[in-house]
Design goal:
Elements lengths: L6 E5 L2 H11 L4 E5 L2 E6 L2 E5 L5 E5 L18 E5 L4 H10 L5 E5 L4 H15 L6 E4 L7 H9 L6 H29 L17 H17 L3 E11 L3 E9 L2 H14 L1 E14 L7 H12 L3 H13 L18 H8 L5 H13 L34 H17 L5 E12 L2 E12 L23 E13 L7 H11 L7 H10 L3 E4 L2 E4 L1 H13 L6 H15 L5 H21 L1 H18 L1
Parallel strand pairs: 1-4, 1-7, 7-8
Antiparallel strand pairs: 2-3, 3-4, 5-6, 9-10, 9-14, 11-12, 11-14, 12-13, 15-16
């Protein structure tokens, strides 16, 4: 498509720049300026940066001293070139005088908007009169990219200011409390080089959620008594049940009653038919949650792989909060999927094209990107570039394809059969599921239940075969990563772009570990949350963080200014700082002991 001579296009990553060059220029040449690849042709220069060019940082008071901490509330801050980004800055400034138009083809979200502003700031240092356009697209589908360049937008400064406000709040809040905790800790015990006790406005409320199951367990019973029962019926065979009691006496009394009676009676059998609705279109939260639950892939790895799949043109932009297929050509995607090598997928796509479909829809809509969906069919060998992550990349792509198809398919019809067995004062419930019509479960095997039949009838007699009582130590019911993500979303902690990072940061800082699919706090993480709850609970208040996110959103909507919101939030942090400062030993001394315990386990 004709863009005219003297045009610069900037994408967020090199892969995206290369894809845009292929779509818009076709026969391009590659030149390297300061080792940065630049795609050139028809008077157009296309370059991919590496995300943010600038870091927000303090101009002074960068040394960690106790006397400087309080000054960070008001200390001047400014943007500095990120480490490793100087070649991109120099390359942009070298090209800037040669061009008259700048197309900012960065990701279409708040972070992408800020990066676009950063690029514009760099370019205008050498070409202050350049005409800038903002280009917005949700996939690297050639038709969509061409359309986006035909209808460019302008930079949304409300979005830029929202991102800037979050950066400032997180910088000041994180630096103040991290330095206070770390320097106070090191009065008692020296930390290894590069190690510190971090606080984060989102990271720490997330840790509170991770620790909460432990606090709940600590307040409850440390042992329970489990009554294990085996019953038998000529047609149903052996049936195993268990009941939990708080006191041994109650469990043993129930055990004696079952042995004395010896037999039970089926009092009720209910057969009901249920419609299981297909999933809603996929947004970032659900992608992270379901990939953890169904594929065993961490949220951090999920988003890293999803972004690579997007840059390879296989899926749409993954950092989206939308669950409605607005403006998406669903039939076009289905036609492409009819070429899929897996017969199960290609035949499902053909059937949907032939029979028609009605997509599901959710309630969330960020109006920036559509739900995550496949863009093209992956070719044989396309995943080899993912190296040791190849199998995970294939599984994630396959999941996205299947989820997309499931959202266009009818509900599944499932029969639930329930039998109630009474033995004396106790009731036992036997439940089995049977799929009557596959519906979306035909393609979405992740939710397919184990099937079985209830052969019992009302009035049938069942025999007690075995009963025993076991004393079992209780343990905290820690959240799976999927449960944690869903809880964070409901409480408004983090965004679709950052939620996985807050979980990962807690693990990286030694506050939590991953145990299977569960996120388990360390002694250090538990002790930090206990201490902060005791002296400055607002620092880990999940509702406060949700309120902060709401205030930041008002900047994006143009309702409030950056300065107004930053001042509101920092005034709350000042109060919390004084509380923590006056009670430091209550937090720090237990942390020293907890650190020793965790260190001894390594």
């Amino acid at each position: 498509m004709p863009l005219g001579d003297r045009t610069l296009i900037v994408a967020e990553k090199n892969k995206v720049a290369r894809a845009i060059a292929k779509i818009l220029i076709g026969n391009y040449s590659i030149v390297k300026i300061r080792s940065v690849p630049v795609y050139v042709g028809k008077g157009v220069y296309i370059i991919g940066v590496r995300g943010h060019i600038f870091n927000l940082d303090f101009i002074s008071h960068r040394r960690w001293t106790r006397s400087s901490i309080e000054l960070l509330f008001d200390s001047r801050i400014d943007y500095k070139i990120r480490e490793g980004c100087w070649p991109y800055v120099k390359t942009l400034q070298e090209i800037a005088p040669r061009v008259s138009k700048l197309y900012l083809a960065l990701d279409n979200d708040f972070e992408g908007e800020h990066i676009a502003w950063e690029v514009l700031s760099v370019v205008r240092q050498k070409n202050p009169y350049i005409v800038a356009y903002r280009v917005r697209f949700s996939s690297l589908d050639p038709d969509e990219v061409r359309e986006a360049f035909l209808r460019p937008d302008t930079l949304n400064m409300n979005w830029v200011m929202k991102c800037a406000a979050r950066q400032e709040v997180d910088l000041r809040g994180g630096a103040i409390f991290t330095r206070l905790l770390t320097l106070s800790f090191e009065r008692h015990m020296k930390l290894p080089k590069g190690r510190f006790l971090s606080y984060g406005p989102c990271q720490s409320p997330t840790l509170r959620l991770i620790v909460e199951p432990y606090l709940k367990w600590e307040r409850g019973d440390k042992y329970k008594y489990v009554l294990e029962v085996v019953l038998n019926h000529p047609l149903q065979g052996e049936m195993r049940f268990s009941k939990t009691f708080r006191r041994r006496e109650e469990a043993e009394e129930a055990q004696r009653e079952l042995y004395d009676l010896g037999y039970g009676t089926v009092t009720k059998v209910i057969h009901s038919t249920e419609l299981w609705e297909p999933p809603k279109p996929l947004d970032a939260y659900e992608l992270e949650s379901r990939a953890s639950k169904y594929l065993g892939i961490s949220s951090k790895m999920t988003m890293d792989l999803a972004e690579e799949l997007y840059r390879d043109g296989l899926i749409s932009y993954p950092r989206t909060e939308t669950q409605i297929y607005r403006g998406v050509d669903l039939r076009k995607i289905l036609r492409r999927l009819t070429k899929h090598s897996a017969l199960e997928i290609s035949s499902t796509a053909e059937r949907l094209l032939r029979m028609g479909f009605k997509p599901t829809k959710g309630i969330h809509d960020d109006r920036a990107h559509p739900p995550i969906h496949p863009i093209k069919v992956a070719k044989r060998g396309e995943f080899n570039k993912y190296g040791r992550l190849k199998d995970k990349a294939i599984a994630l792509y396959d999941f996205i394809v299947r989820h997309f198809l499931a959202t266009l398919m009818p509900s599944a019809k499932v029969r639930r059969s329930t039998a109630i067995i009474r033995i004396g004062r106790m009731e036992f419930k036997l439940e089995k599921l049977k799929i009557l019509e596959d519906g979306y479960l035909g393609i979405y095997h992740y939710e397919r239940p184990a099937e079985g039949e209830v052969f019992l009838k009302e009035g049938d007699v069942v025999k007690v075969i075995k009963v025993r009582v076991r004393r079992v130590a209780t343990s905290p019911e820690y959240l799976t990563e999927s449960q944690l993500i869903n809880l964070m979303r409901r409480l408004g902690i983090g965004t679709d772009s950052t939620i996985h990072e807050h979980i990962h940061t807690n693990i990286e800082r030694g506050y939590a570990i991953r145990r299977g699919k569960r996120i388990v706090p360390t002694r250090l993480g538990i002790t930090l949350i206990k201490g902060l709850l005791k002296v400055a609970p607002e620092l880990v208040d999940v509702n406060l963080r949700a309120w902060m996110e709401k205030q930041l959103s008002l900047i994006g909507e143009g309702v409030k200014s950056r300065d107004e919101v930053v001042e509101q939030i920092m005034s709350l942090y000042r109060e919390a700082y004084l509380k923590l400062l006056n009670n430091l030993d209550l937090v720090v001394i237990p942390l020293v002991e907890a650190y020793r315990v965790d260190k001894g386990k390594r």
